[in-house]
């Protein structure tokens, strides 16, 4: 329970920063931030359950991949 409370507090601190620097509403930023924070934790948990057989970055990338569609691409904002 303490871990979830800490993750929630981290999300509460990050969400206003995301809302201020993107086109997301405060609600969207809060939900997106929670998805990222708790998604990272879930990836870490899965890595542990699998015995750490692959790098944790692989789990984070795989687990958070579906969320990429909601995050603005830096390439879109700043064409090369």
Verbal overview:
By secondary structure, the chain is mainly α. The chain has a domain at 34-71. The chain is 71% helix and 0% strand. The protein has four helices and no strands. It has helices at 2-21, 26-49, 56-64, 74-77. Helix 1 (2-21) packs across helix 2 (26-49) and helix 2 (26-49) packs across helix 3. The longest helix has 24 residues, at 26-49. The relative contact order is 0.12. Residues 76-80 have low confidence and may be disordered.
Approximately how much helix is present in the residues?
over 70%
- Helix/sheet category: mainly alpha
Q: Determine the number of helices (DSSP H or I, runs of at least 4 residues).
A: 4
**Strand percent estimate:** under 5%
Radius of gyration: 14 Å
Could you spell the SSE succession in H and E letters? HHHH
Q: Round the mean pLDDT to the nearest integer and report it.
A: 83
Spans of at least 5 consecutive residues with low confidence: 76-80
How widely separated are the two ends? 45 Å
Main sheet overview: none
Coarse shape: flat
Count the strands? 0
